[in-house]
Amino acid sequence: MSMKVMLILILLLRLSLGLFWIDHGIDKVNSGWLTENKLKLRLVKANITASGATKSYLKHFAIPASGVLRYFVTFGELAVGLAFLAGFWMKPAAWGAVFMVLNFKFADSRLWSLEVFGDAYVFPLLLAGLAVAYFAFGAEWTVRRFLPALERYDL
Q1: Is the Cβ–Cβ distance between 2 and 72 less than 8 Å?
Q2: Which of 82, 83, 85, 147 has CB 3.0 to 4.6 Å from 18, enough for a Cys bridge?
Q3: CA angle, corner 32, sides to 83 and 110, nearest 5?
Q4: Quick count: other Cβ atoms within 10 Å of Cβ 41?
Q5: 119, 92, 90, 91: which is closest to 105 by C-alpha?
């Protein structure tokens, strides 16, 4: 495989991840996460079957802080998606995406169970997020390339 083909595939990976995160963020905005605390409902439901460290995390941190966390989740997903699409701050955005995936799976008690293998999102998101975090794939195809005035900023 030529280097050019590989770079194009890597760019497509980055852009598809960006669209994935944007879609999830917009879905949360449209379903009312910013006006109602729908995150709390999810966390309370997860707390019913949770045990051990997950139950403690939900009971003592996530459920009480859900009023603030719902904004972090919604805007975090949108920010990660925009960063991937625009090509700015891709490494921090990728690490943020990896953290969000791990946190979601920990909160619903699936991170350490065999059910994680049946989840179609976990491994592709983790692997792609780690790849972007490690290599910052497609960095030459960013908004900065088309707007030379941004060169002076370390984005």
Answers
A1: no
A2: 85
A3: 70
A4: 11
A5: 119
Share of the chain above pLDDT 90, in %: 37
Instruction: Look up tokens 């030529």; give the residue.
Output: 2
Give the global pTM. 0.78
CA torsion through residues 103, 104, 107, 113, sign: negative
**DSSP category for residue 63:** T
What are the sequence ranges of the domains in the chain? 3-152
The answer to whether the beta carbons of residues 132 and 141 sit under 8 Å apart is no
- Sorted by sequence, the CB contacts under 8 Å of residue 13 that are 6+ apart come out as 128, 131, 132, 137, 138
Give Cα 99 to chain centroid, integer Å. Answer: 7
In Å, how far are 13, 40, 77, 78, 79 from 26, measured between CA atoms?
20, 19, 9, 7, 11
Rounded Cα distance between 128 and 65, Å, is: 29
Tokens 């729908």 belong to residue: 38
Nearest residue to 89 (alpha-carbon basis) of 143, 26, 8, 9: 143
